[in-house]
# Entry
Amino acid sequence: MSQSKKLLAAFAGAKNAHGTTTVGRTSRDGKANSKSKIIREPLTEALVQAHIDGKQGVGAIPINEENKCRFGAIDVDVYDLNQKELQDKIQKLQLPLLHCRSKSGGAHLYLFLKEWEQAAVVREYLTEMSIMLGHSGVEIFPKQDTIIVERGDVGNFINMPYFDAEMPQRYCFDEKGEAMELDEFLEAIDKKSVLLSDLEAIRSTTQTRKHFDDGPPCIRNIFSDGPQSEPRNKLLFFMGVYCKKKFPDTWQNALEEYNRTLFSPPLPSTEVMTVIKQHEKKDWGYTCKDEPFKSYCDPSLCVLAKHGISDDAPDAPQVGGLTIMLSEPRLYFMDVNGLRIQLSTEQLQNQTLWQRACMEQCNFMPPTTKSNKWQQMVNSLMSQATYIDVPEEETYAGQFKSHLISYCTSHIRAMAPEEIEMGKPWTDDGVTKFKIEGLLEYLHHRRFTALGRAQIIQIIRDMGGDNVSQNIVKRGGKRTKVRCWWVPAFDEDEVELPVQEIDNDIPF
# Structure
């Protein structure tokens, strides 16, 4: 089996779409500016081969039409990432992840499965792994539990590794932290592929190594691989909050015991007493926004823990990427807490309407943010959005052309040029002529009002048409001229094009 065929099989996902990314200039922070686009065509062996040859990069969409996946990934979008340190941690935790360098210098940590599994379940396992690795809050692929197939949604793609495989910048690291060749990567996929039961076994194993099983997941994960040496003072202060919740009468003793058993080396007794005195003076809360806790944070689990964050914990949603369908009107797909919601332009622009859409589609009302913060978030999402092309018939121009074909070829056609004045189209000598008022009335009766007169005239011109004077004979034999428009006559093959009734209101 060829390299391209093996790579295509490993990145099986959406059947009828794939992604491409056009890379532009690199910004000061090291991030390459790029534009992502979804192509509504299957990812083929030929496309993957072009990717391997360095001709055109492609991306695979993990989630399929049944909301299942065979692979997923953790996207560590950090541009000064210590790849060796990350690889060592993956090995230490014995996670079934293949660690690849991304095009921006971050990391894509791939999980390959032996069977198709529900995307929601795979996302859950990958999220847990990202927290264990100290990269909480990074993007998880697939980005959503479900997709809105009936509205043309296809999910999000992730760029495949080994673009230009002879001199790749996107390659996989082996256990020693050295770059693999493509053939080695393909062999590693076979070795690392797992069943869902394997992931559950890994979860059970890691759980047994954790302390603070009824406390915040961040502190559990920090100590999941053994005693820590730094930052001991921050860690001990955080542990003091936990101890006061769990051991209200003996928390000082518990804190001293944690210092002896979980730090290497333990803090001096004087520093431990300083922390104890701080907690005796005041009931502190968890320092969730500080490192290293922030990188291991999972608020959805923390709020459920017996001794986790309080009821007034922040409930801001996790908003993922934005996908824009270039239909008319435009449709937007946004990931909110792993759920896919559909939005109109108005709902994306107006925070109140967006909140209402979240309530209706994912049973959650996000908190209100300041107007400028909302605008910043929307602008950021749109600058990094993925676009989905649509067929011409899903645009206003395409819908108009369908109506125009129907108008010019229907039973209302004129039998003589004199009937042009009656609003009927007249076809002769390879062109069809009509009064614009007759066409507009026809469109009105079919409830097509999306385009104005000027826009319609411009489309007619774009089709090669123009205005012209037509000689006609009125009653009594008097000859006169009628101002009308013409388009090239339509072939019989075009007559069968469907005419869509347009509803300008999007149902939400």
About this structure: The radius of gyration is 31 Å. DSSP finds 17 helices and 16 strands in the chain. The CA atoms of residues 52 and 163 lie 5 Å apart. Residues 232-246 form the longest helix (15 residues).
